Amino acid sequence: MIRKPHMGFSVVTLLATLIISGHAEPPPPSTTDKTDDTAELTRQRDHLQLENSLRDEKLHEELASSQEELARLKMQNDLQKAKADQVLAKRKIEIDAAKVEMEVLSSNAALENARKQAETQAQLIALRAQRDRAEIEAELATAELTKRQSAFKATELEWNAKTSELRAKLAQREKEEEADSYADEKPVYLKNPVTDDGELVLTDRRIPLNGLISPATADFVCSRIDYFNNKNKDWPIFIVIDDSPGGSVMAGNKILESMHSSTAPVYVVVKTFAASMAATIATLAPRSYAYPNAVILHHQISNGMMGNLTEQREGLKNLEQWWKRMATPIAAKMGISTDDFVKQMYTHAASGDWQEFGDEAVKLKWIDMVVGRCRETAWRKNPDSATASTGQQVATADHSATSSEKVDAKGHPYMVLPHLNPIDCYYLFNPDGYYRTDN
């Protein structure tokens, strides 16, 4: 802005002029008063003009000062406004920048949101497509499964029909085989079981007696004697000994008592070997039969006693009592004394184990009759059949004793004899020591 010239210089000049005018020499005397008045008036006029001029100058000076102050204030105001405008412009720029940044962020957020929405939409579309595809595949799989099930059902029905046909054929074949496994002939019951040509006819009233004679064996034999008596008291009952080394004296005596108390006759048949208690049962039976090559063996009762002398004497006394009760009837049937019976045992064998074949045993009256043939009419069921009758079993040894077979330190097999009651003893042929006690 252009600054105006300062008015103070004019005011000073004017004041100096007035002072000089006041001290100036008076004008020459006027000839008239009018001239004086005019001069006075002129002087007053000039004075007033000067005052007015002075006032005007003052006013101009004040006005100039005011204008200058106003200009200064305006300049300050303009400066402040300019500064404010500058700050405002800066703030506006910042605001605009912030707005731009916000718009950018908003735009980016919108873009990100749009991108996510697009991705979500794409995923939803993909999932819907997968769902639709899965539903279609499931429908196809269901249809395929239904088709396969139908085919399988048809195949199953076909196989069931074939299986039923095969089962029917197998059942028919089994029935035919079962029918074929039975003999058409029924058991032949004869009060005198020996035919005119010397054949012994055995029926289903037969009781096998084999292996070690134990209390279980006695129960087995005696219960069947009772059963066959209750069924028929006329037809004979057969105790068939294939192979027995003897066993418990008390168990054997129980069998003898059951035989002798039976209403139906009880006959004993020895096919292979009967020793000790088994031989006693055969010899003391109401009637006994044997093959000519069957072996019958008699010997004294023996027992491995333990204990002090008194206990051993009591045990010996008990053994002698049992021996008397078993040997006396045998010796009486032979027509000799018990002592002679014992002497002949050791005459025929140093061990005292007197054995004879069936045809010689008849001569000694150990056996009543030798037969050349036994006809088993009870074997109506094929022995190889799994359902063969248990009444036709051939072993009656105590299973608990049989299952206890062991091997000693020398590699020799042996079987532990079942424990007997204190007054019982074994009447057993045991030359190889196979049967042993557990003490």
Automatic annotation (TrEMBL):
GO terms for molecular function: ATP-dependent peptidase activity; ATPase binding; serine-type endopeptidase activity. One of its GO terms (biological process) is protein quality control for misfolded or incompletely synthesized proteins. Residues 384-404 have a biased composition (Polar residues). It holds the Pfam family CLP_protease. Keywords: Coiled coil, Signal. Residues 56-83, 108-146 form a coiled coil. One of its GO terms (cellular component) is endopeptidase Clp complex. Residues 380-406 are annotated as: Disordered. Residues 1-24 form the signal peptide. PANTHER family: ATP-DEPENDENT CLP PROTEASE PROTEOLYTIC SUBUNIT (PTHR10381), ATP-DEPENDENT CLP PROTEASE PROTEOLYTIC SUBUNIT, MITOCHONDRIAL (PTHR10381:SF11). This is Peptidase S14 ClpP. It comes from Chthoniobacter flavus Ellin428.
